[in-house]
Amino acid sequence: MMEDDDETPPLAIQIEESANSSSAVLKPSEEDSVGVTVITGYLGAGKSTLVNYILNAKHGKKIAVILNEFGEEIGVERAMINEGDGDGGAIVEEWVELANGCVCCTVKHSLVQALEQLIERKDRLDHILLETTGLANPAPLASILWLDDQLESAVKLDSIITVVDARNLRVQLSEHRDSSSFPEAFLQIAFADVIILNKVDLVSNEASGPVASRVIEELEKEIRNINSLAEIIHSVKCEVNLSKILDRKAYDATQLAHLETLLKETASLSTSNIHDSNVRTLCITEHRQVDLDKVRLWLEEILWEKKYNMDVYRCKGVLDVQNSDQLHTIQAVREIYEIVPARRWQEKEERVVKIVFIGRNLDEVILRDSFKTCTLPLL
Predict the structure, then answer these.
(1) Closest C-alpha to 158, from 285, 60, 51, 249
(2) What is the H or E stretch that residue 337 is in?
(3) From CA 368, how far away is CA 57, in angstroms rounded?
(4) Based on the domain organization, do 165 and 41 belong to the same domain?
(5) Could you tell me if residue 149 is inside a domain?
(6) What is the pLDDT of residues 61-105, one digit of tens each?
(7) Considering the domain boundaries, does residue 78 fall inside one?
(8) Is residue 8 part of a domain?
(9) pLDDT, tens digit, 9 for 90 and up, residues 250-279
(10) What protein family is recorded (predicted)?
(11) For the chain, which terminus, N or C, has the lower number of CB atoms within 10 Å?
(12) Tens-place pLDDT, residues 177-200
């Protein structure tokens, strides 16, 4: 279902929301929404190991795990899961109750229907994990969960977690870097909010201490060149602190502390000297206020009309908007974006515009120069 083009959400969509919007009135249960974490990763990276770890951990949470398209084994006996009879099988398969309060299920066709059935359950869920197949592009999932129209805010996208294999990642990326094919490994890293660098023990086993450390550092640098906004967590057998991957609220405009830290770290990033078409991160900075309507038009030209032939996967940033004392956040996943006021600017805070782009064929000069049309003249 997740990889079916028929399920891909509409392309040109803007999330309308403002300080004076009635959305807070129309969505009274938004604070009670159940977070959904998408878990993705290349084949063999350890997604199923992570899911299995969560399902068996004593965390005291009621977590539902949705498996897409009967993915790899996760330690649950397959005899316990009703896979239906071929194409005529049930759309949403049987739920399996686990001893630690978790719920496991498989989805054959409809993610939305599976989520609706989960949230209609009598027992309150703390979180939902959605494991994708190894070749899944997480963008359509993010779009469905972020838009949330059908689900009426009963669930919300919490974050995208990508598991990568520390021993094989470099080969997976480099073998496609100069070819016409474009592996999902790049996309899964580009869309991630958290990247679990798994199997670091295997790197250490194959090299001495200093060499192994250098290999890991080089891997992290390669990952950050693709996506500097994601947090990188090292792991062995995907045993991670669950607080690092659950309740991230990566798409919540009010969660500014982490975003501001990321923007500070990314501000010096420049790719103006790179001329190939690889996926990368870049940041543009502006010290003048912006016209919000012009920013929307500029963003729509880039995301919707592909005016500059750039393929933007993710976008995050903060704006200093004309005639507003509110810091505005900007966030986009593919063609979907939102710009919302998040908090008041502090009295002695430097008002600056910073926008980070993750994508392919990005051109820093074009982005910086074209954005100047959105700024106000200096007084």
Answers:
(1) 249
(2) strand 336-344
(3) 47
(4) yes
(5) yes
(6) 888 888 765 333 333 333 223 333 334 334 455 566 666 666 776
(7) yes
(8) no
(9) 888 777 666 666 666 655 554 444 444 578
(10) Belongs to the SIMIBI class G3E GTPase family. ZNG1 subfamily.
(11) C
(12) 655 455 677 888 999 999 999 999
**Residue with token string 């951990």:** 57
Same domain, 189 and 104: yes
CATH number where 227 lies: 3.40.50.300
So what's the pLDDT on residue 44? 84
pLDDT tens-digit map of 119-170:
877 577 889 888 876 666 787 777 778 765 666 668 889 999 999 999 888 8
Quick one: 228 and 127 in the same domain? yes
- Let me know if residue 7 belongs to a domain: no
Residues 233 and 329 in one domain: no
> CA 81 to CA 83: how far, in whole Å?
6
Please state, for a pLDDT cut of 70, what percent of the chain lies above it: 68
Domain that holds residue 331: 256-374
In order, the DSSP letters of 140-193 are: HHHHHHHH-TTTTTSEEEEEEEEEEETTTHHHHHHHHHTSS---HHHHHHHT-S
- Pick from 245, 272, 299: which residue ends a domain? 245
Structure tokens at 48: 């199923």
Half-sphere exposure of 40 (CA within 13 A, CB side): 25
Name residues whose C-beta falls within 8 Å of residue 247's C-beta, 6 or more positions apart in sequence.
35, 127, 158
Question: Does the pLDDT of residue 296 top 80, yes or no?
Answer: yes
pLDDT value of position 12: 37
CB 156 within 8 A of CB 36: yes
End-to-end CA distance of the chain: 54
Q: What does the mean pLDDT of the chain come to? A: 76
Domain termination site, one of 245, 277, 298: 245
User: Could you tell me if 302 and 200 lie in one domain?
Assistant: no
Residue tagged 């309507």 (tokens):
293
Count the domains in the chain: 2
Amino acid at 189: I
Q: Which residues pair with 70 in a beta bridge?
A: none
Enter the pTM of the model. Answer: 0.79
- The amino acid sitting at 370 is S
